[in-house]
Amino acid sequence: MDLKQVEIILEKYWEGNSSLEEERLIKDFYTYGEVPEHLEIYRDVFLMPEIAVNPNLDKEFDKEIIEKINSTPTQNRWNFLKIAAVGLVLIIASISVFQIDNEEILAEDTTESPEAALAETKRAFLLIADAMMISEQQVMMFSKLDETNEKIKKKE
After folding, report:
1. What backbone torsions phi and psi does residue 105 show, to the nearest 5 degrees?
2. What average pLDDT score do residues 49-56 get?
3. Is the pLDDT assigned to residue 114 strictly greater than 70?
4. Which of 100, 117, 118, 146 could form a disulfide with 111 if both were Cys (CB 3.0 to 4.6 A apart)?
5. pLDDT class for 18, splitting at 50, 70, 90?
């Protein structure tokens, strides 16, 4: 196809008057022919639809997309909470170890009678129970938040 004919068809294309056969000829011209420098700027217009229709996506791309779809924010939040809990346990354990190294632990009887020891033990258990109740309330807030998020997702 000669340059004059290509330019005429391009002119018709820009005016919206070209036929499908003429557009195919232009596409073939850009795909297989020698393209002059002044017409090179239109190459992407005629070759990009081919690239968009046939993208080179492999099976790894599909796997990554499916993994991202299956990975919900709720799972990510629980993973974060697990990591935070492990970190907190490690920090507490390391603080305890350093305190043990710095202080001498003496096994002494701190109460005068078994009744006083029992009262002291009950007081300690009540403190532990109070702390556990506070922790349980905070965990319940997270579960209510998850339930609310699930309801919102179902409504969408």
Report:
1. -95, 120
2. 58
3. yes
4. 117
5. confident
Q: How far apart are CA 123 and CA 138, in angstroms?
A: 23
Triad 88, 91, 96: Cα angle to 5°: 125
Q: What span, in angstroms and rounded, lies between the C-alpha atoms of 89 and 84?
A: 9
Per-residue buried b or exposed e for 89-99, using 16+ beta carbons within 10 Å of the residue's own CB = eeeeeeeeeee
Domain spans of the chain, in order of start = 3-53, 112-156
Helix (H), strand (E), coil (C) string for the chain: CCHHHHHHHHHHHHHCCCCHHHHHHHHHHHHHCCCCHHHHHHHHHHHHHHHHHCCCCCHHHHHHHHHHHHCCHHHHHHHHHHHHHHHHHHHHHHHHHHHHHHCCCCCCCCCCCHHHHHHHHHHHHHHHHHHHHHHHHHHHHHHHHHHHHHHHHHHC
Whole-angstrom distance, CA of residue 131 vs CA of residue 121 = 16
Segment 17-25 mean pLDDT = 87
